[in-house]
Design goal:
The complex is a heterodimer of chains A (113) and B (130).
Chain A (H helix, E strand, L loop, with lengths): L5 H30 L9 H9 L1 H28 L5 H24 L2
Helix pairs in contact in A: 1-3, 3-4
Chain B lengths: L19 H31 L2 H11 L2 H23 L1 H4 L3 E2 L2 E2 L2 H22 L4
Antiparallel strand pairs in B: 1-2
Helix pairs in contact in B: 1-2, 1-3
C-alpha cells in the first residue's frame, strides 16, 4: 500500500497539463471559428452528436474534460497556498470535489447522448 | 525568543510582484483558472448537446456573443501560455537519458513543439476547420 497519494495526484496533474498543452489551443480555436460564423464540421449538431454517441467519442471527451479539470484543480490548490491561503486540507477537498462533481456530470450527460 | 525577532517584510499575497521571474511563475500558475473555466464550459456544452438540437444551437449562439468571443480570446491566450510554459519545463520534469549522457533540453522542447504543431493541425483538419 502506498504511503502517500501524492504520486496519483501529481500524475493526473501532469497528464492533464500535457493533454491540455497539446490540444487546448486547437480546441479553443475551433470554437472561435464557430463564433465567427465559420462553424467547423465537427461542431455542427449532427456531427458532434454522432461523435459523442460512439463509446470512444465519449471516452475521448470525458478523458479530456476530467484531466483538464484535475490539472486546474491541483494547480489552483498550489497557487492558493502561494498567495497565502494556508488551509490546504479545506482547499484540497474543495478543488478536487469540484473537479470530481463536474466530471461525473460530464459522464452523466455523455451517457444520455 | 529574542527580543527583536527578525521579521521578513514580504507580503504573503503580493510577493510575486517583486521580481519578473516570480511574476512569470505566477502567470504560469494562473493559467489553471482559464483551463478550469474552459473545461466547465465544455461540460456545459455536453449538457446542451444531450438536451437536443435547439439547446445546443443556443449554446453555440451564446458563445458567439461579444462576451463569449472575449472569453475565448482570453482562454486562448492563457492556453498558449500554458502550452509554452509546459513544454519549456519538460527537460526538467522528464530528462531523457541515453547511455551515459542526457538528451539536450533543446531537443526535448523542440520535439514537443513539433508534435504540438502536428497534433494541432491534425485536430483542425479532422474537425473540418479548413
Amino acid at each position: 500500500m502506498a504511503k502517500s497519494n501524492k504520486p496519483v495526484v501529481w500524475g493526473l496533474f501532469a497528464a492533464g497539463g500535457t493533454v491540455t498543452a497539446f490540444i487546448m489551443p486547437a480546441l479553443v480555436l475551433l470554437v472561435l471559428l464557430a463564433a465567427f460564423g465559420r462553424v467547423p464540421d465537427i461542431l455542427t449538431y449532427e456531427k458532434l452528436h454522432a461523435f459523442a454517441a460512439q463509446w470512444w467519442g465519449k471516452a475521448v471527451l470525458l478523458g479530456i474534460i476530467f484531466l483538464a479539470l484535475w490539472h486546474a484543480a491541483h494547480r489552483l490548490r498550489i497557487t492558493l497556498h502561494d498567495v497565502g491561503v494556508r488551509a490546504d486540507a479545506t482547499v484540497a477537498v474543495a478543488v478536487y470535489a469540484v473537479a470530481a462533481v463536474a466530471s461525473v456530470a460530464a459522464a452523466f450527460y455523455l451517457l444520455r447522448i | 525568543m529574542s527580543r527583536k525577532p527578525y521579521v521578513r517584510e514580504v507580503s504573503k499575497t503580493r510577493w510575486f510582484l517583486r521580481q519578473p521571474r516570480y511574476m512569470r511563475y505566477m502567470m504560469r500558475e494562473v493559467t489553471c483558472l482559464s483551463i478550469g473555466a474552459y473545461a466547465l464550459v465544455l461540460v456545459l456544452g455536453i449538457k446542451r448537446l444531450s438536451e437536443g438540437r435547439a439547446a445546443y444551437e443556443g449554446f453555440l449562439q451564446a458563445l458567439a456573443s461579444p462576451g463569449g468571443i472575449l472569453f475565448h480570446l482570453v482562454v486562448l491566450a492563457f492556453a498558449l501560455y500554458h502550452t509554452a510554459s509546459w513544454f519549456n519545463v519538460t527537460p526538467k520534469a522528464m530528462p531523457v537519458q541515453i547511455g551515459e549522457s542526457f538528451v539536450s533540453g533543446g531537443v526535448i522542447v523542440g520535439a514537443h513543439y513539433g508534435a504540438w504543431i502536428v497534433i494541432s493541425l491534425a485536430v483542425l483538419l479532422l474537425a473540418g476547420a479548413f
